[in-house]
Design brief:
Blueprint lengths: L1 E4 L13 E2 L5 E3 L7 H10 L3 E4 L15 H21 L5 H16 L16 H19 L4 H12 L13 H10 L6 H9 L20 H16 L10 H10 L7 H8 L10 E4 L4 E6 L9 E4 L13 E3 L8 E4 L2 H7 L2
Antiparallel strand pairs: 1-4, 2-3, 5-6, 5-9, 6-7, 7-8
């Protein structure tokens, strides 16, 4: 299984994960064989990539943090909430509470906290997909920081609603608008409103709207700020500017102590897989291999199925190596789909 940009998708390839339409219905089932009409429809929906079965290593299974049904339902609810807030200038929180509880329950019931997939998202629903992803990333970071259940709930509420003001003003004023929308609701804990208000504040004081710095920034806003920054790198509105997870993590780490609280950065990066399941990578030995397994506490040292020799020639058998055990072997870079085609793999 591997992620493939729509521009490189070909007839005859098989989907490794289902694709959903804007209403949350299954558009293409897992195992569907790609046709030209499917590719055209995916482009219409603004879906930049899908997961396909990898002919080299076959099916790969890995548990996701939240189920597809939970994600698609959450996207629908946050979309409805934002659209209603534009008209009424009010927020109905009942369904948001339920969605955040489902997300937390899903994460708690999973076998680990490691983010090993990018979510397939329609660019037509970018704001709502982004809000859900930021909530998931924030919640798992809160778990690493050992927040209790109530604090996780408030963090999740703040994170999923952090951009609520963008429905009214997509510019810098969205933080103040979101804060005002949330704090006027008696059901909202004030920390939830402060996440919307402060998620663009920066550790060095160069953020907005109030130029808060360091510990002046609420922890939940600091967490959401990192999650927001990372998700905008791996899934920007303009997907031509998309970074690989390892590149985005490097950007986050580079801003530790400047844009972001070092403690939050450390907790956040601990649970992001730099090289997701299915990534084709080049090792320092010259061999190419596919990431087939991950270690939760050591995400930079995955299990690799080696598919070429050190000169790039395809092998007859594909041995597995565990980078946690092979201390002298490391990943140099990810092979793009364009390079993969050039190599004939």
């Amino acid at each position: 299984m591997r992620a493939i940009d729509i521009e490189y998708l070909e007839e005859g390839q098989k989907l490794a994960k289902p694709v959903y339409d804007e209403a949350g219905r299954i558009l293409l089932h897992k195992g569907a064989t790609i046709k030209k009409t499917y590719i055209a429809r995916l482009r219409e929906l603004g879906i930049p990539f899908v997961y396909i079965e990898d002919e080299l290593v076959g099916p790969l299974e890995a548990e996701e943090l939240i189920h597809d049904s939970v994600r698609t339902h959450a996207i629908k609810i946050i979309k409805n909430t934002v659209e209603k807030s534009i008209i009424t200038k009010e927020i109905d929180l009942k369904q948001i509470h339920e969605v955040v509880n489902k997300i937390i329950d899903d994460i708690l019931s999973s076998s680990g906290l490691l983010v090993s997939f990018l979510d397939i998202r329609s660019q037509n629903l970018h704001l709502y997909n982004h809000s859900v992803s930021v909530a998931v990333l924030s919640i798992i970071t809160g778990m690493v920081l050992q927040l209790d259940q109530l604090k996780l709930k408030h963090l999740g509420m703040g994170a999923i609603l952090h951009d609520i003001g963008k429905g009214i003003d997509p510019g810098e004023e969205h933080t103040t608008i979101g804060f005002d929308l949330l704090r006027q609701n008696e059901e909202v804990n004030l920390t939830v409103a402060h996440v919307a208000y402060q998620h663009h504040e920066r550790y060095d004081g160069l953020g907005f709207p109030r130029q808060l710095r360091g510990e002046q920034i609420h922890l939940f806003a600091a967490i959401t700020g990192v999650a927001n920054f990372y998700d905008n790198l791996v899934a920007p509105k303009d997907m031509n500017k998309r970074l690989f997870p390892y590149q985005a993590i490097e950007r986050v780490v580079a801003e530790s102590g400047r844009m972001f609280h070092p403690k939050v950065v450390m907790a956040f990066t601990r649970n992001i897989a730099p090289y997701p399941i299915g990534s084709l990578v080049r090792l320092n030995t010259g061999h190419l291999g596919v990431v087939i397994g991950l270690h939760e506490n050591y995400p930079t040292r995955p299990i690799i199925k080696v598919v070429t020799d050190k000169f790039g020639g395809l092998q007859n058998v594909f041995p597995e190596i565990d980078l946690l055990e092979e201390k002298t072997i490391f990943i140099k870079d990810i092979i793009t789909e364009q390079e993969r085609k050039r190599l004939g793999i």
